[in-house]
Write a structure and sequence with these properties.
Chain lengths: 262, 309
């Protein structure tokens, strides 16, 4: 039964999911165009396919992470409101699945789509890092500077993206936690806001703004009053954001379960 | 059609009340529908029929009272309970972006008793194209699709909320034929509301006339016909009715002709009406279901007007 619901929810969001795939592909295509344009005057050394692929993957994954965040709010904001706006939620309410099963199916679809697209971006980032650090030469800062001296032309985007690829070394699961926290808060807040609206734009915007508002609300007073270091404050922000997101997901599930009027 | 008092009750309403703000849609409704019965719910617009059906389907909670379906508390709406119920709503809210084939595929996976042969048979009878989107179907076709979805899982209880409203006579005929063929002959329970008296007369064993959130008449069609009758009396010149019995549901006076609909009717009451009103002549008229409905509604309306004035 749950598979039938999941398939239905995937079909419900098919336009959004296709858009997500399309925009992610566009990120990598745009990165590729930018890199080719960037390295055209930089000499043969930058036209090395290893560096170019690494730059393209890094160049696609960086905006890809932002795209995933936006789409996590959009998908979560749409999965309930789309059924409420055309009243097909009434049709669903008359069918055998329980409300909990319906909600779980929606959560599985949204979470899977977000995690899958996030996984693609992280994988691209990881491969970019590996490519950059494989072989005889890695393009660390010193190497880039050396090449800049050789060619008198620094391909800024490529260099910047390779530096971004290098950041993967810090991107342990612990360091990726803020990213997961932000995604949990956008997803949770959008799902919760869905109950107050029949249109998906409102919960999507609410979800997208939630981590920004939380960041300002937590980081600003701490920074102004110098209560703790930036690292500690950021850690606090991450935990609060993740906790808020999970609470919103649970609260939204409770509302879905106990709602009486369709 | 099976209908015995020993049959287990499928629908039980016990003092069910539903309010929307200050307006009462259902006022302490009690009802028992037994297995194998086809119950026709008749009532004017705004009587509360759809509210009653929405409560049965768990789409709207009762403010007070209890609803039991197959002996189970309906407010819990377990999966097993819903798998025994087929529902055709008045307004179809199916997934409009799905094709007929997709929606049948989706719904069929939710019911263990889904009968593919029956669904295919109904599809070909109704000439519903599998590849057509629900959004592009006409109202009649959507109703037919809704009926396939409600019947193909061979439910023990079929709930129809004014299913034939807005359909042309041919569609209505086909629809009722399908209900009769697929459902009634198998002795299952049907609860349906309708505006069409001929539909109700054709398929219902029991009828309830529902007005202002209450049943004001209920019973088998034969019972109602034998219980509610119209008495036509010719009064003497210049005389008004001297005796109006408390059984009078509706009355109309035109010159010397006084027509009074009474419930319950009895020969004794007829004799009493004749003698106490010094009638010159009189007779008893059997009413059709439509006439019973009209007289009961008009009488109720007049009663309320009198109370208000």
């Amino acid at each position: 039964m749950i598979w039938a619901l999941i398939r239905k929810d995937l079909s419900l969001l098919r336009l959004y999911l296709r858009s997500l795939v399309g925009v992610l592909i566009a990120c990598f295509v745009a990165a590729a165009i930018l890199i080719f344009w960037d390295v055209r005057d930089a000499g043969q050394s930058f036209a090395d396919s290893r560096f170019m692929i690494a730059s393209i993957l890094a160049g696609g994954s960086l905006p890809g992470l932002i795209v995933v965040t936006i789409f996590s709010a959009s998908l979560s904001g749409s999965i309930i409101t789309l059924e409420r706006s055309d009243r097909s939620s009434q049709f669903l309410a008359c069918l055998p699945p329980t409300r909990l099963q319906n909600y779980l199916s929606k959560l599985v679809v949204v979470t899977s789509a977000v995690l899958l697209s996030l996984g693609i971006c992280l994988l691209a980032w990881f491969i970019a890092y590996q490519l950059n650090h494989s072989g005889e030469m890695s393009l660390g800062s010193s190497e880039l500077s050396k090449k800049f001296n050789e060619t008198n032309h620094l391909p800024i985007f490529t260099a910047g993206l390779l530096r971004f690829a290098d950041l993967w070394s810090d991107a342990t699961l612990y360091n990726l936690f803020p990213l997961f926290a932000v995604l949990a808060s956008t997803t949770g807040a959008s799902l919760l806001a869905s109950w107050g609206s029949r249109f998906n734009a409102v919960p999507a915007i609410f979800g997208f703004l939630t981590p920004i508002v939380l960041y300002v609300a937590i980081m600003s007073p701490i920074g102004l009053l110098k209560l703790m270091s930036f690292e500690e404050a950021f850690k606090l922000f991450s935990f609060v954001t993740a906790g808020f997101g999970l609470c919103c997901i649970v609260a939204s599930g409770c509302i879905y379960r106990v709602q009486r009027e369709f | 059609m099976i209908m015995t008092t020993d049959a287990p009750s499928v629908i039980e309403l016990d003092g069910v009340t539903k309010r929307y703000g200050g307006k009462i849609a259902c006022d302490a409704v009690d009802l028992t529908v037994r297995q194998g019965t086809t119950f026709g719910l008749l009532g004017p617009n705004g009587a509360g029929k759809s509210s009653l059906i929405r409560m049965l389907m768990g789409l709207s909670p009762a403010n007070s009272g209890q609803i039991r379906l197959f002996g189970e508390n309906a407010s819990k709406h377990s999966t097993a309970l819903r798998q025994r119920i087929g529902y055709v709503p008045e307004v179809h809210c199916m997934y409009r972006w799905m094709t007929v084939g997709e929606i049948l595929g989706f719904v069929s996976k939710l019911y263990p008793r889904w009968d593919d042969d029956l669904a295919n048979q109904m599809l070909s009878t109704f000439e519903l194209p599998l590849t057509k989107k629900v959004s592009s179907l006409s109202k009649g076709m959507t109703t037919k699709l809704s009926l396939i979805l409600a019947l193909a899982h061979t439910p023990d209880l079929l709930i129809l909320d004014e299913p034939t409203s807005g359909l042309d006579p041919i569609f209505r005929e086909e629809f009722l034929e399908s209900v009769l063929q697929c459902h009634l002959c198998k002795g299952r329970t049907v609860f349906f509301s309708s505006h069409h008296f001929d539909d109700v007369e054709r398929v219902a064993d029991e009828v309830g006339i529902f007005v202002d959130g209450r049943f004001i008449a209920r019973g088998s069609i034969e019972d109602l016909r034998s219980k509610i009758k119209r008495v036509q009396i010719v009064l003497p010149d210049g005389k008004l009715p001297a005796y109006i019995p408390e059984q009078a549901v509706f009355q109309r006076l035109s010159r010397r002709d006084w027509t009074v609909t009474v419930s319950p009717f009895s020969e004794e009451l007829f004799e009493q009406l004749m003698s106490e009103n010094h009638a010159i002549g009189g007779n008893v008229v059997d009413l059709s279901l439509e006439d019973i409905f009209k007289d009961v509604i008009r009488g109720r309306k007049r009663q309320l007007e009198e109370i208000e004035s």
